[in-house]
Amino acid sequence: MRIASVVSSNIIKIRMRQFTTIIMTITLFLLTGFSVGKSENVDNNLNVNDSLKRVIVTRMNGVWVMTNYIKDIQKNKSPLKSFGLLNGKGVVELSINGSLHKDTVLCSAVINNHEELNFTGCPKRNNNSLLTINLEDYYTDCHYEIGLDTLKNKISIVLYRLNLENKLIEKRYFTKVLEHYDITNKIESGISRLVNETLLAGQYRQVNAKGKESIVTFNSNGSITGFESFKSYYISTDFLIGPTQNFDQIILERQDGKHQAFGITIKKDTVYLNQIKGNNENFETLKLGKTKYILTKK
């Protein structure tokens, strides 16, 4: 479902998440009043579990990111400026695998964009609503339930946070950013994919500091073509620990596996990649240096 130094913290599996496997008991049933399309209506000839399985496969499968974070990134084009919507906010990304194996569903939750919890769930009969998940290792004063909602014919996952008396504390909406969740893929998260697509994905005319030009393509999955010896990129979204900085960063990976970090500034259709000044190991305040590359979107 993430820095002794700025570069190293963003490189370890591209995000330093402390993966913790938690086996949870999950109760899933249809959301009361949930409006579904005709083809998705519950078949009275099916038992409850069969109906719930179909809802998981057709509606809940995929990777989901907190909707208000998506809107903020689209507005200001800066993960650093939007980090306040992730830091200390608990569950900010949800992944659900619609494939069922003996009534078990593989899921994960990203906490504060820094740690990921993997858990399993299985549909179970009940009369009312939602998917209940247990995050008691993090939150001892509440529990969570997950449901589905439609707004303007668009499906959203809703995360309900309730206190121990089962009263609603918070309701949080999530938007799908990846159609399929692959638990073996620890590099491409939903937030990374979202930021890539929003900020950088596309084709550019690149000019380096020596005036040499090339056509470069940044793909949504983090791969690069046509950019010197660089093969992949990652835009930093986790600023929880590490040197102080007041600019966004992009980490580029070369064919030999070595990484290089640059400051990234986006002004309309032009992207500036700057060298970074400061000692990462000593946690000095980082500053932008000279512009190394200028990329203009085609």
SSE topology sketch:
Elements: H1 6-11, E1 20-21, E2 27-28, H2 48-60, E3 62-66, H3 67-76, H4 79-82, E4 91-96, E5 105-111, E6 115-121, E7 131-133, E8 142-151, E9 154-163, E10 168-178, H5 190-200, E11 202-208, E12 213-218, E13 224-225, E14 230-235, E15 248-254, E16 259-267, E17 270-277, E18 287-297
Parallel strand pairs: 1-6
Antiparallel strand pairs: 2-7, 3-4, 3-10, 4-5, 5-6, 7-8, 8-9, 9-10, 11-12, 11-18, 12-13, 14-15, 15-16, 16-17, 17-18
Short description:
The chain has 298 residues and is mainly β. It is built from 5 helices and 18 strands.
Note down, in words, how this protein is organized.
This protein has 298 residues and is mainly β. The protein has two domains: 18-185, no CATH class; 195-297, no CATH class. The chain is built from five helices and 18 strands. The chain has helices at residues 6-11, 48-60, 67-76, 79-82, 190-200; strands spanning 20-21, 27-28, 62-66, 91-96, 105-111, 115-121, 131-133, 142-151, 154-163, 168-178, 202-208, 213-218, 224-225, 230-235, 248-254, 259-267, 270-277, 287-297. The strands form two sheets. It has a ten-stranded mixed sheet with strand order 1-6-5-4-3-10-9-8-7-2. The longest helix has 13 residues, at 48-60. Mean pLDDT is 76; it is low at 1-48 and 125-130.
